[in-house]
Write a structure and sequence with these properties.
Length: about 150
């Protein structure tokens, strides 16, 4: 079962995931003098703290877990690969070429050969509300699901 959206994104230039065209947000990030706006930066810091303290996330799955119990003791660098819904428009329009979760894991392994690669499936794929296309855990890469 899908949930109704709790937010709206309004952009006069393009969709927020369109990598081919600049968005209002990109234009603001490129041109606004954030360092000069101390009131805005203080407000942003307070907002970030509230979100972190309340553990608010896109899916609000922020239950506390013991990372060492889940992944074992940290003995080397860890790289988290965050799975995507591969059939989502954000992948079709947000990438310069088609890419799968398997590709993301292979890239992480290639760029970090001595690291522990941790793959986290997208919550909608994990819970069966969206279909997964690839299975990075079955691709032979040394993975740990979280």
């Amino acid at each position: 079962m899908r949930a109704a959206p709790a937010s709206l994104i309004i952009d006069s230039r393009t969709l927020h995931y369109d990598a081919q065209n600049p968005s209002d947000l990109e234009r603001t990030l490129e041109t606004y003098d954030f360092a000069a706006d101390t009131a805005l930066m203080e407000r942003a810091e307070r907002g970030i703290r509230v979100l972190l303290d309340l553990r608010v996330s896109k899916y609000n799955l922020g239950k506390r877990i013991d990372i060492d119990a889940l992944l074992g003791a940290k003995t080397k660098k860890r790289v988290l690969v965050i799975g995507q819904v591969e059939t989502d428009a954000a992948i079709a329009f947000g990438c310069d070429r088609p890419i799968t979760n398997n590709d993301l894991v292979r890239l992480a392994v290639a760029e970090n050969p001595d690291a522990q690669i941790i793959y986290k499936p997208h919550p909608e794929v994990l819970h069966g509300t969206r279909a997964g296309v690839s299975d990075p855990a079955g691709g032979g890469a040394p993975l740990r699901h979280s």
